[in-house]
Amino acid sequence: MIENTSETIYPCPLSKAYGIPAKQAWLLLKVFLGYRLTLASLFIVLFYTHTGSPLLSIHHSPLFTYSSQSYLVLSVISAVCIIWRLTRYTVQAQLLIVTDILILTLIMHAYGGISSGIGILLAVSIASGGLLIGGRCAMFFAALASLAVLAEQVYADYTKIFDITPYSYFYTGMLGASFFTISLLSFVLAKRSEQMLQLADQQKQAISNLEELNRYIIQYLQSGIIITDQQQVIQMANEAALRLINLTVLPSKLNDISEQLERAFQLWLANNEQNFLVLAVLNQSDVHVRFMLLPTGCQFFYMIILEDGTVYNQRLQQSKLASLGRLSASIAHEIRNPLSAINHAGQLLSENPDLPAEDRRLTHIIQANTARVNHIIEDILQLSRRKDSRREKLELNSWLDGYLKIFILEQSITQNTITLLLLNEPLFVFIDPNHLKQIMDNLCQNALKYGEPEAGAIIVQTVMLKQIPCIDVIDNGSGVSRENLSHLFEPFFTTSSSGTGLGLYISKELAELNQAKLIYYVTADNKTCFRLCLFNADHTLIEI
Question: Cβ neighbours of residue 449 under 8 Å, at least 6 residues apart?
Fold first, then answer.
């Protein structure tokens, strides 16, 4: 029994013919069965009502009666077997065609042989055999029908039951040739139909895969997507859109999201130039909204693109900073040459033994400020020519221990100035060592400069948060005021008259370049802490 529509049948045991999809094969078999039931019923009705007597002369009534009744009974039995799938498709199809050929030949003989025209009905059986089974089985049915017709003609000629004309054998041969032709054509037609079905199935599968891929891409886009029609009925929305508008269930219309969004959409329909909106969402950052037209073959749909305002502002800020970095680098190169000349002239002037003390103090001011300007230029150039990270696996505890020993020597400070607290377990991180050193230099130097080390030791410690290794740099400074907190990691922002405002910005950029995160917070005992969360070499970084 065939129930799986994707199954392929090899119907004929004489030949492994082309495959036919099972659902279509059983449907064709039912159509042919319906034709048989109709034909058998028609024969019986014509016989008992004598409607066909003017057209067809029955030469052998008992043979016609038994043959037509057997034809109807066999068709009914086949209907039961086909509907309930009591036999295999191959067996059932072969029985239908073979019995069709034999019984129609008997009915043809009962009606007066080949001259009655009943033999043309065998062509339908041959064509059905080519469509239902195909392969060499179709040729076998054509040969069987040709032999049956020829045998009937020879028997009629031998027994002299009815008149045989000289052209009867010629008609028999032509009818047999037509059987083979029909069989071949039906086979070719079935083969072509099969190829078209296979192509349609392939295209259907390709379209299904593309739809699934598009659905996956849309669902996991960072931007929110809402599809609506002109009546503002929402057809679809991805997960990002629901998250951005702070909803868990897909609303039915735009005004269920926001009346502001509904008005902006109507305004955009009237004037397509006004396609941008900043949508305020309760307890979340603002959402930037854009409208787009999606024309289809039948009707118009509209796509509403939602973006997190924070992400949008970050992109805008990055674009501005990239332009600023290129401009600053160009300016820095131009400043460096005259700055070197000023510094060199100040050094030569300070070496003059006849220079008064007041003027010598002025030369020291010149040298100190040229050094400060040169330091700013170095930071700007370093920012503009930043290279990709070359990350490697580091054991954090041992690296920090070695780093602080060198840092203490370089800064000429005592051992008690910085206290190192390490976890007992080894921590392995994945980061560029040079970038990590630069970040730690900035954090530790800021702690020495602004963290009031005289009030207590600076603490550098390792912690593990949600399988993420982190470094805390804690000092005793007064911290960052609330109004300056949002600008803490912006470039050129500083509260010091001698600072460049690039240290923390560069540190944050280097951290993100290594898939790490640099944050600022105040500890429970009101101490300032910068926390660097690094990429765990054994686990994936989790957002915190």
Answer: 496
Identify which of 258, 238, 261 has the alpha carbon closest to the alpha carbon of residue 250. Answer: 238
Helix (H, G, I), strand (E, B) or coil at 533: strand
Six token digits for residue 85 = 């799938």
Q: What is the pLDDT of residues 458-509, one digit of tens each?
A: 889 998 888 888 999 988 877 777 777 777 777 766 666 555 667 788 888 7
Amino acid sitting at position 122:
L
Q: Which residues pair with 61 in a beta bridge?
A: none
pLDDT digits (tens, 9 = 90+) for 353-376: 777 877 778 888 887 778 777 777
Is the four-CA dihedral 5, 7, 8, 12 of positive or negative sign?
negative
Question: DSSP letters along 387-434, please?
Answer: PPP--EEEEHHHHHHHHHHHHHHHHT--GGGEEEE--SS--EEEE-HH
409: Cα within 13 Å, side-chain hemisphere = 5
Pairing state of beta strands 517-522 and 428-431? unpaired
Q: Which two tokens stand for residue 407?
A: 């840092």
Global pTM value: 0.43
Pairing label, strands 287-295, 300-308: antiparallel
Residue whose pair of structure tokens reads 């050193």 in the numeric block = 437
- Summarize pLDDT for 76-134 with one digit per residue, the tens: 999 999 989 888 988 999 999 999 999 999 999 888 888 888 889 999 999 888 888 87
Q: Which residues contact 297 (CB under 8 A, 6 or more apart)?
A: none
Domains of the chain and any CATH numbers: 8-206 (no CATH), 224-310 (3.30.450.20), 312-384 (1.10.287), 392-533 (3.30.565.10)
Read out DSSP for 239-257?
HHHHHHTT-SS--SBGGGT
Cα separation, 114 vs 379, in Å, equals 106
Alpha helices in 20-167 (DSSP H): 22-49, 61-83, 89-110, 121-132, 136-159
- Hey, what are 520's tokens? 């600022």
504 Cβ neighbours under 8 A, 6+ residues apart: 442, 446, 488, 489, 518
Q: Side chain identity at 315, as an amino acid letter?
A: R
